[in-house]
Amino acid sequence: MRVDGRGLVDRTRPVRFSFDGRFYEGYQGDTLASALLANGVRLFGRSFKYHRPRGVFTAGSEEPNALVTVGRGAEQTPNIRATVQEIFAGLEARSQNRWPSLKYDLLAANDVLSPFLSAGFYYKTFMWPRSFWEKLYEPLIRRAAGLGALSGAPDRGVYDTAWANCDVLVVGAGPAGLSAALTAARSGLDVLLVDENPAPGGRLTGEDELIDGAPATDWVADVAAQLAGLKNVRVMCRTTVTGVFDHGTFSALQRSATHVPDPGDAPLEVFWRIVAKACVLCTGALERPIAFPGNDRPGVMLAGAVRRYLHQYGVAAGTRVAVFTNSDDGRKTADDLRAAGVDVVALVETRAGVKPGPDHPTFVGSTVTATRGRLGLREIRVEGAGGSQWIKADCLAVSGGWNPTLHLASHTGARPVWNAAIASFVPSPGALLGFEVAGAAAGVFSTKGAIKSGRYRAKLILEGLGAKVPRQGSVEADDTPPSAVAFWQVPAKGRAWIDLQNDVTVKDVELAARENYASAEHMKRYTTLGMAPDQGKSSNVLAMAVLAAQTGRSIAQTGTTTFRPPYSPVAIGAMGANGKGRRFAAERLTPSHQAALDRGAPMVEVGLWLRPSYFPRTGETTWRQSCDREVAMVRKAVGVSDVSTLGKIEVHGKNAAQFLDFVYTNKMSSLKVGRARYGLMLREDGFVMDDGTCARIGRDRYVLTTTTAAAGAVMAHLEFVQQVLRPDWDLRLLSATDHWAQLAVTGPAALETVNHLLDQPISREELPFMGHRQAQIGGVDGRIFRISFSGELGFELAVPARFGDSLFRLAVAHAETLGGGAYGMEALNVLRLEKGFLTHAEINGRVTADDLGLGRMLSPDKDFVGKRMATRPGLVAARREQLVGLRPVGAVKALSAGARLFEPGAGICHENMQGAVTSAAFSPTLGHFIGLALLEGGRNRMGETIRVLERLRGLDTLCEVVSPVFFDPDGGRMRG
Amino acid sequence: MVDLIARLPGAEIDAHSEGDCVLGLPEPGALTWVSAEPGQEKPVGKALQDALGLGWPRPGRVLSNAQARIAWFGDRQALVMGPALKSLAGAAVVDQSDGWLLMRVEGAGARDMLMRLLPLDLRAASFGPGHVARSLAGHVPVIVLGRRGGAFDLLAPRSMARTTHGDLVRAMKTRLALRALDA
After folding, report:
1. CATH number, domain at A802?
2. Please, where are the H alpha helices in A465-592?
3. Same domain, A892 and A932
4. What is the reported pTM?
5. Is the ipTM, as predicted for this complex, more than 0.85?
6. The domain spanning residue A660 has which CATH number?
7. Which among B2, B37, B138 has CB closest to A810?
8. Minimal Cα–Cα distance from A356 to chain B, Å?
9. Strand A676-682's sheet: what is its strand order?
10. B177–A804: do the CB atoms touch at under 8 Å?
11. In chain A, how many domains are there?
12. How does residue B169 score in pLDDT terms, banded at 50, 70 and 90?
C-alpha cells in the first residue's frame, strides 16, 4: 500500500491500467510492479518449471519472477519485467505461464512432481525411445515449461536502429556514473551518459540518504542539471547498454516509447551501436539473496528492493514486514520501514555478535528456515539459539550482500576476480583497454566512495586521452564500510531456490556436483542456472558459493560462468529494425524502370535489382502467353530489353592487358581495340566465379561486363587481385555500372531498329560479331556492342543513364512497328536456355570450367587465378557432374528447375542421385520443355534416358540427355 | 536523328523537409572519376591546379572553390565535381555524371539526423567542411561530404538512390518524433 509522504512518483497524476483484465490505479512514475504492490497485488506469475506462484522479487532490470505480457494481439510483447515497465494510461498487462488462471494453474502439478524433476531429469528420462524426443517429449516439455508466448502474428511495432559516437561513454547514472560524467564533461570531451532507468540517480533514488547535508536526490538533480547545461554531454535514459564489443563498440537498447500510450511516428525501441574512445562502467551492484527453504514465495523480496519501493515509489511492500540479513545494510531496511510507519515484525540477523536493534524484535545468530502461504507469504519460521518460532509476516526482505554488476566488464573475455572483503567477484582491473570501472561495480559500495571512485576513474580516462582534468571540491556522504559476513545458505530441510527464473534450487546444484558436473560451466548447463534472459543476475555468486561448498573448493577457485551479451533481453525486432520487409535489402532500379511500369510490366527481383518479368498485352491472361509471344518476337522480328543491370567495370593502366590475362582463364591481351571477347574467371580455389565479356576500348583501357548477380563479387575480386597479388602494377579499376543505361536490341530485324536510333547507320560488315565502337544516338555519345544473349543478331546500345528511359521508349516503339517489342526476364531466360547460355543457376559456385563444357577456355599458355587449384584430382574427375541438356520423353512432358536426376529403376536415395536440373522452361520455338542440368559424367551420356524427380511439385518424368545447345547450334543466326 | 530526353537520376524522388532538417536535390554538375598513374599524384594535382585551381586531395579530404570540388574517392582516385573534364595527362578520366545522385541535408538537425543513420563519427570536431568518407547508409554504399554550416552532401549510386532517399526521410521523421516524445 502507499505510504504518505514518501516516494518520488507524482501523486497528482493518477494513471489507470489493467493487469489480467482488472483495472488498477497507480501514479505517473510508477512501474507496473510498484503500482500493483501499492494495490496489494503480490502474485505476478508462475515459475518456469514448477509453476510455483511467484511475486515481484527486485525493483530493477534484474527481476527474475515478475515477467508479464504487455499489449494485445500482434502488438503483444512477452516477458516484460514488471519492475521495468512504466505504467501509462491504458497499459494492458497479463500474467504468463499459467492455465486456466494465475490463481488456479493446473500445471502446478509439476510442483507436486518436483522430486522427479530435478536437474538432469530430461536427459535421464527422455532418452528412449529416441524417435519420441522430437515428436512427443520436446513439445510436451515446451508446453509445460516456459515464459510468455509470442502472438504468432507479425509484429507491427516500429523499431529503429541508430549509431552514436562519443569520447567518453559512462554506463550508469548512479553516484559513481554522475560523478564520472560530470568530471569528464568538464574537460570538454564529448560525454554520453547512459542509464537504463527513466531518470538518473541509480541507487540514490531508492535510498533515504544525505549528500552534503541535503537529500541525495537534491544532489542527483543538481548534477543532472549541470550536465544538461553542458553542450558536450548527452544523457540517454531508459537505455540499457547490452553488450561490449571490440574497438570500443557497444550495443544499447533504448526503450524510447514503451512508456507512452501513443508513440506516434516514434519507434518503440531503438537499438544503438555506440562507438566510444573510452568508457567508465558505473553499473552498480545487484543484491544477492540467501538460499533458505521456501524462499520463492510471493512476498519474499530483496531488501534493497523493499527500500526502493518505499523511497522511490512510496509503497510499502507489506503490512507486516520481516527482514532477514547478514549486514548493517540489510538492517537499514527495518529502520527505514519503521521510520515510515510500517510494522516490522522481525529482524533476523545471521550474525551472532551484533547488537539487537533497539526498535525491532531482533533475532541475532538466527535464520529463516521455512515459510508458509500458498499464493503469498503468510508466516516465516525463525530458528536460532533460543529455539524456533513461527512469525506472521506478509513480506520478508532478504539481503545476503551485494554483487558488483560486472557483466559488461566480462563481455570481451576478461574473467572477474574474487574480492574477499566484499565476498564477491569484481572486474579484473586493467583487463580492458580504455575502460575503467567505478563505484559499486568495482566493489566500492558506500555513497561517498562511489562518488570519489567515479571522479577518480574519470580522471584516469581523461589523462589517457590527454584531456585536462578539472578540479572538484570535496563531498560529504555516507561512507560506511561493507559489513556483510559471507552467508550463503541456511542448512535446513526443504527446497531453497538459487535461480528463481530458471527454477534451480540448492539441491539441483548439489546434484550436479555429485554427478561430476562440478565445473561452473558444466553445472550451468546441467541445471540451466543463470541461462537465457536472466544471465544469473541475482543468482550467480550464490550458486558458485553452493557449488564451492559441495566440491570443497574456494569460491575463487570455482570462478564464475561466462557473461555474454545481451545484458538484458533485446527484441529481435529492434536489432533488425531497418531490415524488415522491403527494407531487407536495397532496391536497385534500372534507367527504364518507369517506362517498364508504364507498360504494365510486373517486376521481379534479380539480386537487388527490380526487372520487368514480362510486358503483358491486351488479351494475354497468363505470364506464359506474354513470355511465349516475346520469345517468338525475338526469334522472328526484334526485341528490346534493358540490360543495364550487367556489371560494367573499367580497367585502365599500362598493365591492364596483363592483369586481364591473369584474372581471365583465356587470353585478353591479344584482343584488338574495337573487339570484345567472351571470358571466364575462376576463384582462387579453381571453381568458376563468373563469365562475361571483355571489350578493349583503348590501348590501355578495357570495359568488362559481368553477370548481374556477380557484379559486386567480381569487383571485389579484381580489387583484391590488384591490391594484394599485383600491387606493383599500373592498374586502375572503376565500377561504372550505374553511369550507363544499356539496351539489348536483338532479333533478325535488330539492325533496322538500331539504325533507326543511331545518328550514323552501320552495316553488319562494319560491326562484325563481338565488335564494338563509339556511337552517337540523338547527338549523345554512347557505345554500341555487337553481342547476343539470345542467339539472334544482337546489339547492345549504351548511353549515359539519364537517356536510358528515352532510349528504351524509342527503341520499343520502333521495334513494335516491325512486329517486335519489349521483352522481360522470362523471355530472356527462355532465349538463353534455347541456346544453352549460362547464368548463375549453372555457375553455382561448385562447378569447374570443364563441368560447363568450357575446359578449352583454360589457356595452357599463361598463368591465371585458380589455374593450379583447378587441376586438383577432385576437380578433373570423370564422374563430376557435367552440363547437359534435357528433353522430356516420358508420359509427363514437363520439367522443373531443382529436380533431381536418377537412373530409371534406381532406388530414390541420396546415394543414387546423379545430378540436378539447373534451369528449365517451355520453349515456344521448339514446342516442348527444355532444361539444363548438371549430370554425373553427362557429356558421355548423350541419348540416355534419365529419371527426373521433383517431389515439391510432384514431378516425375523421363528425359533424354541431349546437347545443352537446343537451337541454332552453329550460331549462324547471331554471327551472320 | 532521334531525340533523347534526359531523365535525371532522382526524377522520381523529391526534396523533403522535416522540422529543422531539409533534404535537397541540388544539381552537382559533372562528376568525373580521375585516377592517377602510380606516382603521378603530384603532376596530376598540378594539372588539376592549372585546370580548376584545385590540387590532388589527401585521403578523406575534399578541396573546393567556387566552381569545383575534388573529393578523395579511394586509393589514387578522386572525384571531380562541377566542371566536366575530358582528359588529364598521367591519369585515367571517366565521366560518372549519371552514376550518382546528389542529396544534400542541411539545417540545425542535419548532423544529428545523419549521425543516427551512418556508422561514421560525424561530430563537428571529427567531420566538417573539407572531409569526405565512403560509408554505408543502411544497405547502400554512399559518399559523404561535409559542408559549411553543419550541412552534408551525400552521393548515392543512381540505381539505389530511391532506397537512400527513403532511408533519409525516415531518419528525419523518426528523429523528430523521438524529440517530440522527449519534449
Report:
1. 3.30.1360.120
2. 506-514, 520-527, 540-551, 555-558, 572-575
3. yes
4. 0.93
5. yes
6. 3.30.70.1400
7. B2
8. 49
9. A676-682, A688-698, A701-706, A647-652, A732-735
10. no
11. 6
12. very high
